[in-house]
Fold these 3 entries.
Entry 1:
Amino acid sequence: MNELHLETSPYLLQHANNPIHWKAWNANTLELAKNQNKLIIISIGYSACHWCHVMEHESFEDNEVAATMNTHFISIKIDREERPDIDAVYMKAVQIMTGHGGWPMNVVTLPDGRPIWGGTYFRKNDWINSLERLQEIYTEQPKTILDYAEKLYEGLQSLSIISKNDSENDFNFEILDSLVSKWQKSFDWDFGGMARAPKFMMPTNYEFLLRFGYQTKNQTLLDFVNLTLTKMAYGGLFDTVDGGFSRYSVDLKWHVPHFEKMLYDNGQLVSIYANAYKLSGNKLYKEVIEKTLHFVEKEWLTIEGSFYSAFDADSLNADNQLEEGAFYVWTKPELQRLLQEDFDLFSVVFNVNAFGFWEHENYVLIQNQSLEEIAKQENISLETLTLKKKYWEQILYTEREKRSKPRLDDKCLTSWNAIMLKGYVEAYKALGKPNYLDIALRNADYIIKNCWNPEGNLKHSYKNGTRGGAEQSIAKATINGFLEDYAHVIQAFISLYEVTFDENWLQNAKQLTDYTFDNFYDEKAQFFSFTSHQDDPLITNHFEVEDNVIPASNSVMAEALFKLSIYFENSYYEKICRQMVQNIVPTVDYPSAFSNWLNVLLHFSEHNKELAICGIKALEYLEKLNKNYLPNMIIAGNVSVSKLPFLENRFSDEETLFYLCQNKTCDIPTYDFKKIIKEITAKI
């Protein structure tokens, strides 16, 4: 009766042996609920979610709970990463009903899918009592529930309406100063990030603040971004032993993480650290990039060139029980045994003291001082301390590899793969390592071959089961792509063009963009719907416009449209991008929730420029340019005759020329690279 064994999602398969009669979300299940006139339980989570596992163990593995759920309800289990569309709609409902959201998310709906009750984590008795009471009301007072469902449905419908701004006026850039001024009041000047816990990294926020600080010469903002990136890199949010970031920290100092590692976080963080490194030359940022990408390549990169999704928060402890963080934490006796005479110095660096203590005799490694400061205090050379730190980390890595690793979510999500692809490209720009570009190109080839159908649509999820040369029988792409898949793949393909000047990547990006206009764009709303017009509709339409831990798919589309409008001299792309930004910016109250939109707004400022590099040495100059932090510059180029509208009739086989342009007007071309660099930086 539990049908989840038929699924490919690791999260759904984790629940395949529950006594609950779980079903997947599909037309047959929804029709069954209507035919039997049963309320539906929609339970949503993901494989790396600690509290999802807790509720499974306490409730969904329990026969008493199963009796209640199986008798009266149709129960549907959903992997939120596979179906972000369903998750978004019912998350809105839970937030309306309770004022907050999170996972696991559990919603009870009418047979037609309209929600009537919900929340996040429930203890066993609370869960049973709530379900029994809902069933009682539905049986004895159905009108009460139907009336509430209708009011909640109307509320959900109203949330999908976005205000329009038909003004033809130029953008008001002064709003950025007022928004940033308001935003600064929430800055944590002790540890970086926002002054609240739990503490999410929100890389899009720091991409905007870095750019805005750079373009306005606001040293305060640049210092704040540097503080935040430094404190995050000190651990324990960042795994200094093997690289990679956890999803968030439960405290203010980025110390104790919620230990799951997610692909999308690490892809975006590599990008922001790469950009910050280009601006600052901070060696710590380089270390973070290299360690993170080494981790990703070692643990998540498949033979086909795709990336797996996540590592679980939980792993087996010494007693063979699943425990959050068991893989990552250390006891003092362990560290003393491993480090011996170096233990005291190690304790100073990584705070084996009250600052680094977590719970139950466990320490989470975290720095609170730079190596330069510690070397001076301890009267040793920086070179010696740096070498010791690497040596200690290797000792701990070797020991930790003996432990049971966190569970792997081995599905490959198209949007998250594209985010990681872009991270590799940005790292290649900053550090120039050919291997980074090779991996990015392999991943792009994987997306084209396995996720992009001949009919023109992308698939959202791919499961191949390939790891370390071992093959499983599952190998298929499932679920029609969402806007996030198109937006991030388009952005990733543009980024590949930015380092290769291979125009095929721009043509691929344009082809996918035109597909999104045909299948996602809503002329009435003036935004792109999250789900394709080809898919069965949910209870309400969803337009993703708020930037979160991943930027909103509409803001990513807007950024891509702006760049493509220049490359292809496409006025329609520019018009739609401008309209989207005009609709959003006047509504912004909390800039942290719209930071990528604000970044797109900056594209329209007087600081934004375009540069064409045309000639046989174009790629040599491109590599030099890409090592600079130039967020306000869109770069194109060719090493042979090009038909790309922006480059047409600009190639010379005698010399390499630079065309610096702004607002559709270009300066007289020059062959002097030093001069063009000077002009670019002088006009910031």
Note: The first helix runs from residue 10 to 14.
Entry 2:
Amino acid sequence: MNTSRIRVGIDVGGTFTDAVAVDATTLELLGQIKVPTSHHHADGVAHGIVEALDRLLEQTGCAPTDVAFLAHGTTQATNALLEGDVATVGLIGIGTGPSAVFTRRLASFGKLELAPGKRLPLAYAHVADPDDTAAVRHAVERLKEDGAQVLVASQPFSVDRPEGEQAVLDAARPYGLPMTAAHRITSLYGLHKRTRTAVVNAAILPRMLATADLVDASITKAGVTAPLMVMRCDGGVMALDEMRRRPLLTVLSGPAAGVAGALMQERVSEGVFLETGGTSTDISVVRRGKVAVRHATVLGKTSYLNALDVRTVGVGGGSMVRIGDDGRIAGVGPRSAHIAGLPYACFASPDQLRDARVATVRPLDGDPADYVVLDAAGGRFAVTMTCAAGALGRVPEGDFAHCDPETARAAIAPLAAVLGTDVATAATRILDAGVAQVKSVVDAMIRDYRLDKDTAVVVGGGGGAASITPHLALSSGMEGRIARHNEVISPIGVALALVREQVERIVPGASQEQILAVRAEAERAVVAQGAAAEGVEVEVTVDPQTSTVRAVATGATELRTRDRAHRADDTERLRAAAASLKADPAAVHVLAGTAAHTVYGTETRRRLRPTRHAVRIVDMDGVVRHHAADAHVETTTVAGAPEVLARLVGESTSYGDGGVRAPALRLLLGSRIADLSGVLDPQPLLALAHSELRSRAADEPVVAVLEVRS
């Protein structure tokens, strides 16, 4: 039975603000609203957020007190950097002797280009002794005279000794400026990159603080008692107070919302997610149930900002067809009907397309004059990817981009005549040209992340999904589908996203105590932001090459009920495992299981070589949550796990010139899959496993899945 409690996700785009209400128990979409983004209102984008919420509550018949979770994603920080609409940063460098040489070089950040002709506004001042209050205040006064609106303090090695930066901030506090210290933005070494990340964060801080305060006050006034969360660029959400400290985490968060939707609604565990709009397609990867992230490039420089690895191709549902001098399809895009200011031909009426003839135009000054349009009785229309997909019946009924297939075929027919072929062939050539650009990037990402192409799926989101995803699936041979409610997959992702925090430390030769401390810090951080402590999951990775210990903690703001409308039965789960294993269901066996997951496997006997045991972990919804080409599976209990795991890890650890390599270990505990595969050293691995077992009943079953590393 549905509950009246709802989760609300609001995605603030450049043109529209989309909001959705999702049932907090069944995760069913209950309502969706679209309003213009209020860039020019006195309250800025905050006004559109509140307007969308009000209309959503009215549509669903819910009261503000029914909102169990409220989060929004915004492009405001990204747009501020792209447009150069940022605050002047006052940077205070700290140090004497050699340290002073390095910090004085930080003044060069004033040369960073935000937009053509616009550089990062920065004023620099130096203090030798951070405890000299008079000197610090004199520096602040000079920076204010130079127009500083926000302050950053930076000192070499502040990751280990933050007292100097903190002393500067304490002395500067009476001046009332927003301020931050470089060590608070990232705990990684590298003075130049750490400070640059902090400076860019500070440049957008005043504007983001103002918006946060307006949204917070408006939501509270509306009667919503749920804490307000904000979308991060790595696919999670953070508390508003955390956003006030690190607004840079919202940069590039737009694509992350769609991937969060693919993870939570579509339950993608391995594959590629495409978010297709009218002009472009954002491509990202889900590997083993997690989004792929990396240090992002901001203002042309690498930063310590962990963001979704998203690659954008200039092809979308509205991309216009181009024709060459030889009378063949020369390409698709990058200009779209939106940029050209033209309607799609497939959305015209048959009468409007009467007497249509093919012409070519130059959408913008400087563009080649080879973009195809139809001049017809009803005016000028663009021939687009959506027209071609519609003509081939690739756009399903009810889809945001659905049109009358007959009209779509009529839109392609004049071009087909010019090409000397039939409508279906012309439409296929259009999709071939557009999708080829997307496929090359998808193929590269599959290689980069070593996805198993036999099990990876392609999931399309965004209003233009039908113009790309079905044809890509056909041309690549991969399984593909359009996400449910694809046109609002981003706000759905915001509504369903988990609280996330990442802690990174550079710890040469990290001991198991130090690794556990980083893990505990990440866990505390998400709990402090409202995640239910009982449901927090932490993934730890130790990189021996860079001595980086990384812990990523995720959790929901409430313990989510598992009562869903549908649960897969044994036959459905077996069928899902067999399909993923590319095996006859009769050859697939149940190897182990918990209340939430079942482990299936097959054997492949090879002459003169060890037998391989391919494994799939399937959840209660019938979704494959993990796959391994060769793994060992063993069941024990919490009480027996320490001895069993010590034996298994000891037997599976390899030693060689590359060092010690413990097996990739995953534990099935209760409703969770604890991923410990990021740790290569046996002792910290076992220590982390023990930390996962604490506070659990001695007789609770534990399933260990180990993959030996070569």
Note: The longest strand covers residues 609-619.
Entry 3:
Amino acid sequence: MRDDAPDGLTDAGSSVCLEGFKKPYQQSAAKTVEAIAREIFEHCIWYFLRDGGAPDVFVSDDDETFSLKDFVEELGHSETAASFEVKGQTFEMLNLRLKTSARNATPRLHWCAANRVVKDESIAGKLPGLYARMKDGTSTEFTYVCYLSSTYLNDHVRADRTDFDLPERMAGDALIDEPTLDDIRTGVLQEVAKALTEPLASGQLASKERIHQYVSTKGPKYRPLMKRIESAGIVVDPSMKDADLEMELHKHAQRIETDWLAEGQAVFADSSGDKPEDYDERLAKYLVTVKEFNQSDLANYVARRRTTLDILAKLIESDGNGKYAREDRIHELLFPMRQDSNEVGVDASNLWILDERLVFHDYLASDKTLKNMPVTDDASTSRPDILATRVLEPDLPVLASEGQKLPLQSIVVVELKRPMRNDATAEDKNPIAQCLDYVARVREGKAATATGRPIPSSAQEPPAFCYVIADLTPTMKRMCKLSGLTKTHDGLGYFGYIEPYKAYVEVISFDGLVNAATERNRAFFDRLGLPSS
């Protein structure tokens, strides 16, 4: 209490009342008096560590009281002091290694002046290995915090003490050679590098291990480019999420590709006329880079296949209520619904899961009516899940051509059923009968290629391949037996040739579909170090 305080004044202070506490903040705010006191202390740490300390501050609630000074002993920190000069001005640093908590989980630089913190900023990633959780050879994690003060900052703090009257940086030659904020920040980081030599080295090693772990298991497309990415000095926070790490690697790969394209243009520009002495060497290096990007593209394609199979495996699982995904979700994964091959690019189709040969077709329709297909004049509004035609070369009865050679055509029909669906009894719900009916309708129509060229009459009964993707429920097994199909050796499907329709029919369970596709791609997955099961 002041000596000149008015008579009779026994208490002094301020009361702050918080009203209208918004719900999102209310839900995440600390509730107990100890938690509230601790958060206040963590926010004001520097005031307790600076010369002169801080006043006694108590946080009370009913009969429970905490003194903020009591938390100093529990801080779990170590501190060192350092100083440096920038353009003749001296700056003092208080380096703290704080026990990592949710609140201080970012390395920060606090700018102090006039005996208070004026502003602070994150310095995460400003030095390779400088991230939230660091180690110095022990298992204990810490977060680095720096408090910066100086007479120079005192002299340039604004009257409201919210910032400094200093430029961020100075372009060109300044009239007055005084340090800018960027100059000071550079000096701070140089001192931090000295104070955290071992932890920074440990962070860089952890970063390298994190990148290699991600590339090995989830980002194999970057493996051919890793030497170039690492040479660019990439260092990431080891705790970075996969999505963020993917974006960081992608950014570096794009930079490399941009440089590669520029170099390619320069090499080709020098290919005519008198070539520079180093032309052959530059060309050789460029071709090596081309090879690396080709390998990266292939790895990316194979990785997408692995991811697609993982998604399919999830779709055929039951949820917590014992329900299964609708067939349209699986359908969309294989090929977009209500579209055809004239509307969808090759990359949008995953029919390789069923049969690699389906990539080669003259025409393919997904959930379109027969009436709207250009390959037949059938007026039916029936919608095959997937129907494809292949126009084949006469001397290659198995391999598909590019769709312009006649006369032999083949028909492929795919029917999908909801996982564990058990109603394949009536003809309109029997997927085998549905497939055969579609085959008959296409054959009865005036068949043509996707470009409108008629199929010769000698080919009006083209071979047909029917695929039914459905779990082998009791009713589905019964339909397979009634159709005279043979069970596969692994028990995950049925197959056979139905003579009246001259059609090969294969019924594949969803487990069998995933297993077969995985086995066909196993060599590629293993080559990239991806899990194949």
Note: Residues 119 and 499 are 83 Å apart (CA to CA).
